[in-house]
C-alpha cells in the first residue's frame, strides 16, 4: 500500500464484530496469571477505522468505522471511553469501548491531532495544529469550554497523573508548553530538540520526555524547574515515548526500531528491531509489556519491559497510528 500521500498529521457506525474460532473462544475463558488482560484501540488512519485488539487472543475482535483519517487517541482512565481525533474531518469521535460504538462527535475549529484525557474524567484536551491552540472539552456536554495559547504546530499532549499540569509538544517551535490545568493558562515554555512530536510525562509528574523527529533524540524536561534536564540520542525519526521498569522506550519511524534508555543515567541500553515504521507506543497497566504500533507493516508488537525480548506480534488494520493512549484493562 502506498502511503506517500497519506495525511502526516496525523460518522461512525456500529462495530464489525470478529468471528472466534473454538480455540479463540477457549482462550477467552482463561488469562494466564501475570498476563495483562486488556484491549488495544488502534487508530487505522488509512483504513478510516479503529481496530480493537484483544491482547490475550492477539487478534482483532472488532472494527469501528471512523472517518476523517483518525490519528490521535486518548483512553479514559476507567477504560470506558476512547476519544479519537480525525485530522481531515475536524472532529473528535467519542467511542463507548464496551459497545464498540461512536456515541458522539465533537466538532473542532481547527485540525485536531494530539489528545489527552483528564485523569478525573471531566475533560479532554485537544491540540489544534494550525491556529495553534489547546482546547478544553467538557466530556459531559461535548462543548469546548476554554482554549489556551501554545506554540506552533502542537502535536502530542500529556497530563501529569494528578491532572494539574498539561504539556504540549510544539513541533515547529522546537519547544514544549506547560499549562496549568486549573487556570488553563500557559505558565512556561522549554526549548527541546528539533520538531518534538510525541510527549510523555512520568508517573511522578516530575519529568516530560519529547520525541524529536528532526534531531533524532529525546529531550528530558524537569517540570518543576521548567528546564531541560538532558538529551538522549536514539534512532532515526523518533515518534513517541513509553516508560517502564526504569527505562524509556522510543519508536524510531525510519529506523524500524525501538530505542531503550535508562531513565536515571539517560544512557542507551538497547535498540530493538520491530515492524516497519513504528509509531504509537504505550506501556501496559501492570508495567510488564510495551506495545508498539507499526504503521507500514500493519502490526502491533509486544516487548517484555524487563528482558527486552519481543514476546508477541499481532495484526492491526490498515495504516495504524495510535498516537496517544490506546490500551484499556478488561478484567
Low-confidence stretches: 10-35
Q: Reading side by side through the largest sheet, how are the strands ordered? A: 1-4-3-2-30
Please tally the helical runs, counting DSSP H or I stretches of 4 or more residues. 1
Structural class: mainly beta
Envelope shape: globular
Instruction: Calculate the mean pLDDT score and round it.
Output: 91
Instruction: State the CATH class of the domain at 9-25 and 40-123.
Output: Mainly Beta
- How far apart the termini lie comes to 36 Å
- By CATH, the superfamily of the domain at 9-25 and 40-123 comes out as TolB, C-terminal domain
Strand content: over 45%
Write up what this structure looks like:
The protein is 2% helix and 53% strand. The strands form seven sheets. Strands 1-4-3-2-30 form a five-stranded antiparallel β-sheet, with no helix packed on it. It has one helix and 30 strands. It has a domain at 9-25 and 40-123: Neuraminidase (6 Propeller). The protein has one helix at 22-28, and strands at 16-17, 38-44, 49-54, 59-65, 72-75, 81-86, 91-96, 101-107, 112-117, 123-128, 133-138, 143-149, 154-159, 165-170, 175-180, 185-191, 196-201, 207-212, 217-222, 227-233, 238-244, 247-252, 257-262, 268-273, 278-283, 289-294, 299-304, 310-315, 323-324, 327-329. By secondary structure, it is an all-beta fold.
Amino acid at each position: 500500500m502506498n502511503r506517500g500521500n497519506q495525511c502526516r498529521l496525523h460518522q461512525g457506525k456500529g462495530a464489525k464484530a470478529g468471528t472466534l474460532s473454538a480455540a479463540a473462544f477457549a482462550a477467552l475463558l482463561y488469562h494466564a496469571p501475570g498476563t495483562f488482560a486488556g484491549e488495544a484501540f488502534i487508530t487505522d488512519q488509512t483504513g478510516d477505522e479503529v481496530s480493537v485488539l484483544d491482547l490475550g487472543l492477539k487478534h482483532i475482535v472488532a472494527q469501528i468505522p471512523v472517518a476523517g483519517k483518525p490519528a490521535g487517541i486518548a483512553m479514559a482512565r476507567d477504560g470506558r471511553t476512547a476519544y479519537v481525533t480525525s485530522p481531515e474531518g475536524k472532529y473528535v469521535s467519542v467511542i463507548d469501548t464496551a459497545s464498540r460504538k461512536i456515541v458522539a462527535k465533537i466538532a473542532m475549529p481547527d485540525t485536531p491531532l494530539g489528545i489527552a484525557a483528564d485523569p478525573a474524567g471531566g475533560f479532554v484536551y485537544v491540540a489544534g495544529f494550525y491556529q495553534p491552540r489547546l482546547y478544553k472539552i467538557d466530556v459531559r456536554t461535548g462543548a469546548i469550554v476554554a482554549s489556551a495559547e501554545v506554540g506552533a504546530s502542537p502535536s502530542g499532549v500529556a497530563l501529569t497523573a494528578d491532572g494539574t499540569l498539561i504539556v504540549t509538544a510544539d513541533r515547529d517551535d522546537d519547544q514544549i508548553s506547560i499549562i496549568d490545568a486549573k487556570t488553563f493558562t500557559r505558565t512556561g515554555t522549554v526549548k527541546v530538540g528539533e520538531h518534538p512530536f510525541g510527549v510523555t510525562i512520568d508517573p511522578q509528574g516530575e519529568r516530560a520526555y519529547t520525541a524529536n523527529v528532526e534531531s533524532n533524540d529525546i529531550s528530558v524536561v524537569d517540570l518543576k524547574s521548567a528546564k531541560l534536564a538532558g538529551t538522549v540520542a536514539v534512532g532515526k525519526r523518533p515518534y513517541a515515548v513509553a516508560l517502564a521498569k526504569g527505562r524509556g522506550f522510543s519508536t524510531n519511524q525510519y529506523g524500524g526500531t525501538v530505542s531503550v534508555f535508562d531513565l536515571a543515567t539517560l544512557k542507551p541500553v538497547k535498540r530493538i528491531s520491530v515492524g516497519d515504521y513504528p509509531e504509537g507506543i504505550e506501556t501496559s497497566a501492570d508495567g510488564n509489556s510495551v506495545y508498539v504500533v507499526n504503521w507500514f507493516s500493519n502490526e502491533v508488537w509486544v516487548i517484555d519491559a524487563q528482558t527486552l525480548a519481543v514476546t508477541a506480534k499481532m495484526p492491526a488494520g490498515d495504516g495504524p497510528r495510535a498516537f496517544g493512549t490506546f490500551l484499556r484493562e478488561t478484567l
